[in-house]
Amino acid sequence: MSKGQSPAATDAGAIAQFRWFDFMMAAFVAILLLSNVIGAGKVASLWGFTFGAGILFFPISYVIGDVLTEVYGYARARRCIWAGFGAVVFMAFMSWVVVALPPAPGWTNQAAYESVFGQVPRIVFASICAFWAGELVNSFVLAKMKIWTKGRHLWTRTIGSTVFGQGVDSLIFYPLAFWSAQGWTNALVLTVMVTNWALKVGWEALLTPVTYAVIGFLKRSEG
User: Fold this and answer.
1) Which of 13, 16, 68, 71 is most buried, judging by how many CB atoms fall within 10 Å of its CB?
2) What's the pLDDT at 38?
3) Helix, strand, coil % over all residues of the chain, rounded to 5
């Protein structure tokens, strides 16, 4: 802060400098939370492929992670990772407390509620470990590849970082979340783990034009 400049003016200048950063962080955290609550526990099947339903939306968080690293740098992307980490921890704690509360007399939905939210703490614990490791690997590889490619060939960085980041994520998440869990055979866990990793990388490749467009827009907008 320069001499004579008020803190409010400094904050306003920071907001003006990065006017889209907060929105990108909010989108990142929202997708992370919703993927864990809504999509993680369901196994779906389409066209002969067996996969975790959350895969339809969760890879968007990796695209946003790529955008954050590319536009705002590794340090700010890492802040978003820690923000997501904190939000997921709180979600696990809240789920545990709410499920553990004794139901009111006459309320007959406790069993159904537990079947949906009772598995959340284990899924969230696995997600925290996988998300933390996978996102850091993704951002680290993306930042290093940006140096190696001298800022060129963005598609190689986004897809290459996803191969490693999502590989680490899937390798940690599915065994921790579902190994020996009710309704999951060990073979099913391995099948979903491999299928979801391949689908995540495929999603990244398909969304590369979108990633290019968003990064270009943000770089022009943020100056």
Assistant:
1) 68
2) 76
3) 80, 5, 20
